[in-house]
């Protein structure tokens, strides 16, 4: 399973404002469902990652015996594909909020 998000900040060991104990890069990611996470960035794409990029975060389990998700940014999605991906999840979120609102109105006995 993969979750889309937008990068809002990058923490690179090469950044002058970051002092790092290792060579890994992390990114602050606003997920499609409004959650906020700081995720590892796969080293193969870390140099290409920019703030504002739409990314896919790997949520598959760390191992077969675990339910803990990896939470590693594994893909950067650009242009039309990024817009399509973000808009489809945004539409799903809007529909979910509308359904929740309708259910709350039905159960309210004011």
Oligomeric form: single chain
Secondary-structure content class:
alpha+beta
Number of helices: 1
Helix content: 25-40%
What is the CATH level 1 assignment?
A: Mainly Beta
The number of E-state strands comes to: 5
CATH topology: OB fold (Dihydrolipoamide Acetyltransferase, E2P)
For the record, what is the CATH homologous superfamily label?
Answer: EutN/Ccml
How far apart the termini lie comes to: 42 Å
SSE order and pairing:
Blueprint: E1 2-11, E2 25-31, E3 36-41, E4 54-58, E5 72-77, H1 79-107
Parallel strand pairs: 3-5
Antiparallel strand pairs: 1-2, 1-4, 2-3, 4-5
Describe, in plain words, how this protein is organized in 3D:
The protein has 110 residues and is an alpha+beta fold. The protein has a single domain, classed as OB fold (Dihydrolipoamide Acetyltransferase, E2P). It is 26% helix and 31% strand. The chain contains 1 helix and 5 strands. The protein has a 5-stranded mixed barrel.
């Amino acid at each position: 399973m993969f979750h889309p998000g937008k990068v809002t900040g990058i923490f690179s060991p090469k950044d002058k404002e970051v002092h790092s104990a290792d060579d890994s890069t992390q990114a602050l990611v606003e997920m499609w469902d409004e959650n906020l996470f700081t995720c590892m960035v796969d080293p193969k794409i870390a140099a290409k990652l920019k703030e504002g990029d739409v990314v896919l975060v790997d949520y598959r389990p760390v191992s077969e015996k675990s339910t803990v998700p990896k939470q590693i940014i594994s893909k950067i999605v650009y242009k039309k594909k990024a817009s399509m991906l973000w808009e489809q999840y945004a539409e799903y979120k809007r529909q979910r909020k509308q359904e929740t609102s309708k259910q709350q109105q039905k159960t309210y006995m004011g």
